[in-house]
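Sequence dictates fold. Below is an illustrative record:

_____
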Amino acid sequence: MAISILNNIPSLVAQNQLSITQNNLNKTLFQLSSGSRINTGADDAAGLAIANGLGANIAALDQSAQNANSGVGALQVADGSLAQVTTLLDRAITLATESSNGTVSDNQRSALQAEYVAIRAEIDRIGTTATFNGTSVFTASTTSIFLSDANSSSQITLTVGILATSGTGGLGLSTDISTQSTAQTALTQIDSAIASVAATRGTIGASINRLQAATNVINNQVQNLTSAEDGILAADISQVVGNLSRYSILDQTGIASLAQANSTQQNVLQLLR
């Protein structure tokens, strides 16, 4: 083999291999410190695109679950308020039944009327003050719960407008039980109001169940998509640690080889002595 001093080919080979080793070592250290297999698009362009798409789906589903939970919260406020309305109506029917009795005096009916008026006022107050997140739960309009997974979307429409139109007026309650005849008329109206509230609470309960079922489905989707995303992005730590040991050793031997290759041409000087 001819001896040449123009180019140190072994040194170039050693430099090239050392550069490759150090790039792999840096990539391995990045994976180990971040816990992610893909840290740049160069690591796995296709995998990164898929993982980003999954991440967008997960973000949309997480927000959809929050939307559904907010809907459940609003409906639970409405249901709790209507439960109190039912209690008040039960008391109202007791008062109207008592006032309907022919043995009750006018003074007693006046007292019954005063309590009945207070009950109506409290139902009106509930209708106007029951709120969720600053918004009345008894509105005349419908409320839409938006659900999305970034690829498709849907809406669940809720209606809780039973107390929206003037509270007790919306329930069709009489304003008067001060006489025997008006009390008897009020009994029919109160019975109808109790049935209407019960029907509305049934509808609310069904909507709550629907939203909770939707939330369960969304949470299951999030779990599966997160698992898929993790499978693409997450670094296999045991493999990365093995690579770290491998490239660390190669880095040290590469540096030693480069030093040896650089010192080889020094032997040419021996020929000049």
Q: What stands out?
A: Residues 10 and 143 are 76 Å apart (CA to CA). The two ends are 21 Å apart (CA to CA). Residues 9-35+235-271 form one domain. Strands lie at 131-132, 135-136, 143-148, 153-158.
